Here is the input.
Amino acid sequence: MHWLRGTTLLVIALLAAACAQAAVTESSIEKQLGKLRSVPTAQRPAATIEIANDIRTLPAGLPKLKLADALSHLVTEGDPGQEALQTVAETLAQALSENPIATKKSDQPPPMPYVDLARLVRYEHVTVTLKDPLFDKASDILAANDADIAKADFTLKDLHGKKFTLSELRGKIVLVNFWATWCPPCRVEMPDLDAIYTHFESQGLVVLSITNEDPFKVSQLIGQWGYHPPVLLDAGGKVAQEFHITGIPQSFVFDREGKLVARSIDMCTQHQFLTMLAQAGLHP
Here is the structure.
């Protein structure tokens, strides 16, 4: 009798597990991804890890790869913690190893999933095992881009017509931030940028917020916010190209000697901004 009861419980447990597994579909994961930004900050790391683990259960193929890549874009918003970043990176690496993407010509840039994985490794300090020449190529491109950014210089006008030249700000710590009014993560981080600028301006911090949008539209929003850092207008996006900007927000910190010492690839928390600025020698 006890044996039968134990067997019944085991069968029930196996059926429950099978049902849970069956419930994980491409569609269900897409819904989870769509709701991830609305998850409370404290719960978001666990929710991200759960989605990554669900993606791993899917059969190999392009749909799985697309979902893993989409999650890699979301995990960099804010500070999800190293465990979530590592789990997402491993999930994307698994999807790429199962379904490599070929390029038609050797001189073509690597497909974006390789670039996204290389960005996680280079800028979020995760580790993955993926032996693929396209992943290596993506990593080399990022290194070359950073070398370009380290030598970058520009002159732009702010909303009031005042000129700012990056190379003329030597002696100050400069945080260059690329943003847009239509970008939700940009709008989330800008109050923190404003608070940091207001606090550290007397210590030589300059925050340059760069956008390529219409000045009137930008002025309206900035006026509502009471945003204090200079907002520079990059008509045509030439400076964004010089910084190899493919998505926003992104931020770059230059120390008092003009050396690039830190950068972000997505929305930052106040703590993350302060960590970046600490690498330029600025401390609370």
